[in-house]
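Help needed: design a sequence for this.
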């Protein structure tokens, strides 16, 4: 029975997809926008010697710079106009969400509905430009300090003009990606920002696979280790899908109400609480914070202060301090972001206004405390899950030096974005089917 129902639903989906003209337009727009993004990752910034840059970056690609380059879709290694990718926008968004939690003025803006959301988005754009300008200037200075052992510099003509043009180019690239992501969200399918990061990671996958197989061909890695890595990747993907779909459903009841001769309400519902409410934000932000000192040290090419070199050594792949700080950052941002996206007090008030209550729990403050208790326990499990998934590839890379960084945060992003995009497509198909039923019912009513 279940298999027959699934086949019928799939056949209806394929039939609806062939007739869903609006969905096809959205899919084509999303594909075109992502192609534009990928083309931009190959347009270099002016004034950089690509050969010297490739040699210098190859010496640091095995560390966290290589990890950041995966998020940037290879744009950082090629030092293109999208080298910063969308990371300044993500950092600005998280900072604004932090401000809405600690600033009364920002919290009031958040409660003003659509108008307040527009103002917060505008402030986020200003913050993106500011952060991109700071990071762009740091990259420009770092590029001027990059050189080979022969003394050949990565910058053809260093100076103030190069720094200004580099900052303008990188800020313009980030702002364009921010606009492109918003266009994908409005006119395409899924979250545009997530899809941009997703496409960059997926584009690096074939090269990572080829590099791993090449190590097996030359004998640097045994066939058993390669098979183990492939099986482990499939197992981690299945584990991520299972946990991301896991929910704790809190039962909610609504009392019966008598109005005239009719009885309303009396039904049972549930409040779904995800096991991982924070999503992929905690590992992204934790890794970006850890990248700052290491990136500065990498760009200084060993000419920085001694304490910076010491920090770089301690924060290398597989080092205990790096993994400890990574886990601490993931746990912290799990609780912080969960508190931002879900407010137990507001949820309890909304349930009380609509007459809903959790069985055995008094409405109001007691309900809020119960939801906070349940959510805290779920967040502990979710933080442990994120920490395990993100630390596992760190251990593998440090043990076998595998150039296969398609793990941890990358897998989380790819799997989560894929699931969200499929859900968006299904919702569009469902809306199209409802529109078709409404049109048929109207035509039938007119004929009568």
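Sure. Designed sequence:
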């Amino acid at each position: 029975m279940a298999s027959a129902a699934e086949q019928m639903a799939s056949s209806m989906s394929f039939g609806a997809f062939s007739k869903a003209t609006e969905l096809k337009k959205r899919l084509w727009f999303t594909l075109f926008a992502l192609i534009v993004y990928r083309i931009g990752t190959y347009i270099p910034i002016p004034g950089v010697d690509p050969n010297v840059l490739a040699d210098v970056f190859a010496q640091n690609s095995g560390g966290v710079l290589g990890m950041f380059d995966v998020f940037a879709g290879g744009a950082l290694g090629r030092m293109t106009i999208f080298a910063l990718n969308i990371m300044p926008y993500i950092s600005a968004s998280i900072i604004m969400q932090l401000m809405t939690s600690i600033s009364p003025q920002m919290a009031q803006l958040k409660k003003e509905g659509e108008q307040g959301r527009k103002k917060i988005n505008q402030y986020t754009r200003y913050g993106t430009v500011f952060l991109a300008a700071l990071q762009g200037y740091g990259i420009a200075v770092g590029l001027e300090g990059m050189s080979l052992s022969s003394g050949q510099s990565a910058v053809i003509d260093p100076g103030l003009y190069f720094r200004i043009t580099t900052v303008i180019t990188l800020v313009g690239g980030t702002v364009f990606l921010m606009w492109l992501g918003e266009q994908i969200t409005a006119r395409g399918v899924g979250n545009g920002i997530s899809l941009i990061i997703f496409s960059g990671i997926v584009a690096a996958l074939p090269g990572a696979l080829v590099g791993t197989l090449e190590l097996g061909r030359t004998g640097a890695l045994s066939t058993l280790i390669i098979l183990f890595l492939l099986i482990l990747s499939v197992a981690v993907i299945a584990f991520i899908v299972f946990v991301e779909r896991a929910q704790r459903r809190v039962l909610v009841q609504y009392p019966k109400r008598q109005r005239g001769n009719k009885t309303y309400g009396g039904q049972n519902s549930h409040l779904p609480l995800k096991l991982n409410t924070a999503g992929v934000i905690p590992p992204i932000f934790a890794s970006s914070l850890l990248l700052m000192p290491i990136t500065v040290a990498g760009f200084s090419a060993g000419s920085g202060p001694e304490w910076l070199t010491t920090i770089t050594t301690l924060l290398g792949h597989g080092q205990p301090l790096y993994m400890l700080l990574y886990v601490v950052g993931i746990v912290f941002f799990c609780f912080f972001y969960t508190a931002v996206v879900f407010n137990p007090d507001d949820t309890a008030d909304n349930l009380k206004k609509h007459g809903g209550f959790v069985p055995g729990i008094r409405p109001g403050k007691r309900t809020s405390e119960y939801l906070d208790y349940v959510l805290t326990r779920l967040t502990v499990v979710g933080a442990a899950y994120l920490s395990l998934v993100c630390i596992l590839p760190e251990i593998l890379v440090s043990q076998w030096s595998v150039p296969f960084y398609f793990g941890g945060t990358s897998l989380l992003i790819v799997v989560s974005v894929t699931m969200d995009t499929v859900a968006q497509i299904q919702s569009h198909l469902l809306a199209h089917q409802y529109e078709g039923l409404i049109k048929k019912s109207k035509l039938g009513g007119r004929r009568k």
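The radius of gyration is 25 Å.
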